[in-house]
Amino acid sequence: MKQNFTVSNTTTTTTTKDSITKVIIQKDKVKDTLDGLAPHETTCIKKFTTSYKFSAFKVKMYTGELVAPNFEGNPYAGDKEYVDFITEGCKNNGINFAGRYTNIQKSCGCMCEHIFIVDRSNGEIFTEGMLASAEGEGRFGFTYKKDSKMIIVDSGLFTDDNFTHYTCFYKTAPEIYMWKSKRFKKLQ
Prior knowledge:
Layout: E1 2-7, E2 10-17, E3 20-25, E4 43-47, H1 80-93, E5 101-109, E6 112-119, E7 125-126, E8 142-144, E9 150-153, E10 165-169, E11 175-180, E12 183-186
Antiparallel strand pairs: 1-2, 2-3, 4-10, 5-6, 6-7, 8-9, 9-11, 11-12
């Protein structure tokens, strides 16, 4: 199904395939909402601006022996699927976040991922409450670097590799956090 409409003098085409709506914008300016569309078609492209850079949050890389996840005292220690997932994630990924952590992602449904973090210097596992928000912990992708404590949350919304434009679904936008004291601190 194809549908053409005009937003702020911009011709836009939506193509719906497999329950996913893709919006193609031919000019840069788009209203925040697309009037007259059904809720499942409410989509727009927005410019993303930030002064935060991964390089501003550089950390020293841990060079010691990688410690396996420590499940002692963990509320999910009895859940075999959880233990296997975290253990395999550490084996397959090594240090990939903030100089000493293994960041592991797991799908929680369509456009939803949870994040799990293991401190490879001592095995401590961080599972819940790291991203405090009204929407909960599930997000649409994460972008991070092994030598930076900055993370971009909902990064799956970006339309390009330069993080300049993103698709906004129901007023969702990428957010920037910094890892600080066993949880994330929101920066933007």
